[in-house]
Amino acid sequence: MGMVCEEAIDKIQELIDQVEEEPLKKTFERVHQGYLRENLSRFLKARDWNVNQAHKMLVECLRWRVDNEIDSILSKPIVPSELYRDVRDSQLIGMSGYTREGLPVFAIGVGLSTFDKASVHYYVQSHIQINEYRDRVLLPSMSKKNGRPITTCVKVLDMTGLKLSALSQIKLVTIISTIDDLNYPEKTNTYYVVNAPYIFSACWKVVKPLLHERTTKKVHVLSGSGKDELLKIMDYTSLPHFCRRGSSGSSHHTQSADCFSVDHPFHQQLYNYVKHHYETQGQAEPAKQGSFHVGFPEPGAERVQIVKTIESELHKSEHCNGLGNPVDARKASP
């Protein structure tokens, strides 16, 4: 880090040290996991190194965590198990492995996620649990293993099946992305977009100018399944299943390598971790009903504009001939 960045971190650390409320101090320990300066820099980056704005963002994040009991979310299983399976079948996300630098590789089935088998609260609960498991378990473990701070991940976004019906999911996706932006800033090092149909190219072209340059620099649209490019940063065993086949196909949930499946080792480990932490509270079985409700932040004006732009572009592209065909990465790039 440069001298200016180090000075900014010193200043925000001085401000956060002045926080006297014990619940905020306690939850901040959950956030930084011993890597204080690296996590302070995340909030500074998210606010273009403006110390006062970053400090305000961090304090608001800590209050959100306390008000919504985020520190206990990893002891709140989604039950019964059939409901958890329904969530996994309709909210396609998983972890396929690690990059050679030790960053977790998260795969997201953007085009084929339906979010139609549970209430919005369960999907939000599941998403935050994955975030917290990543930050409290996976990243500290990899930091220790590699002997250096590892505080970010990479995400591979599978656009297979992206179509006009995605409009029905925009509200939920906006809620989740707003939660991430405000409370888990700068946790993703790079976004790799694969299996992108024409409709994605059309949306990306009009949305990209609305995004912060810091964000657009992280997005890499790869040709086809992106297999060759991704193998430059990870081993074959860490490739998401929809990249291994060299083509689209995230709709097939039968192979053991399918990182979206509830039977994948990552989801089994996560579910067992949450269930174990519930049971250590002295109760044998979780309640049969009830999701973990989290307050939904209001999206900012910029995000509202992005959503409107995407909706408009999806409608324009409804009758486009090449709607479902993968696009060449060169045509989706600036």
TrEMBL record:
<dbReference type="InterPro" id="IPR036273">
    <property type="entry name" value="CRAL/TRIO_N_dom_sf"/>
</dbReference>
<dbReference type="InterPro" id="IPR036865">
    <property type="entry name" value="CRAL-TRIO_dom_sf"/>
</dbReference>
<protein>
    <submittedName>
        <fullName>SEC14 cytosolic factor</fullName>
    </submittedName>
</protein>
<feature type="domain" description="CRAL-TRIO">
    <location>
        <begin position="80"/>
        <end position="240"/>
    </location>
</feature>
<dbReference type="InterPro" id="IPR001251">
    <property type="entry name" value="CRAL-TRIO_dom"/>
</dbReference>
<dbReference type="Pfam" id="PF03765">
    <property type="entry name" value="CRAL_TRIO_N"/>
</dbReference>
<dbReference type="InterPro" id="IPR011074">
    <property type="entry name" value="CRAL/TRIO_N_dom"/>
</dbReference>
<dbReference type="Pfam" id="PF00650">
    <property type="entry name" value="CRAL_TRIO"/>
</dbReference>
